[in-house]
Amino acid sequence: MMPHDCEMDLQQLSHRLAQHGFGTRSAPHFAENGMVAFTAVAHTRVGNVMNKPVFLYATPDGWYARITQHGGPHWIRAAEDIYALERIALEALRRTKTPPSSAWTEE
Predict the structure, then answer these.
(1) Tag placement on the chain: N or C end, fewer CB within 10 Å?
(2) Distance (Å, rounded) from C-alpha 19 to C-alpha 48?
(3) In the β-sheet with 23-26, what is the strand arrangement from edge to edge?
(4) What is the pTM of this model?
(5) Distance in angstroms (rounded) separating the CA atoms of residues 49 and 53
(6) What is the pLDDT of residues 49-66, one digit of tens each?
């Protein structure tokens, strides 16, 4: 069961990720209560591109981190609570390999 205040938890997570030097934005296009965290924004001729984006969101089933807007379950990790979601987000933001590598999957 999801906590009633998941939006507040995500806002607090956004502040903690900012303290680590990462950017965050709301991601209503991805999930009603979601956000995207990233390492930096690159300015290109096509527009702004977020580096190493990780989408963080809650559903009635739990917390999730996803590293692409499209794709299968190998791009998604579930978290048992907001603190586990933070650990997963930090791993994704600090990753040196392109998922779905063994560095992203926990299996």
Answers:
(1) C
(2) 22
(3) 23-26, 35-38, 54-59, 62-66, 76-79
(4) 0.81
(5) 9
(6) 778 889 999 888 889 998
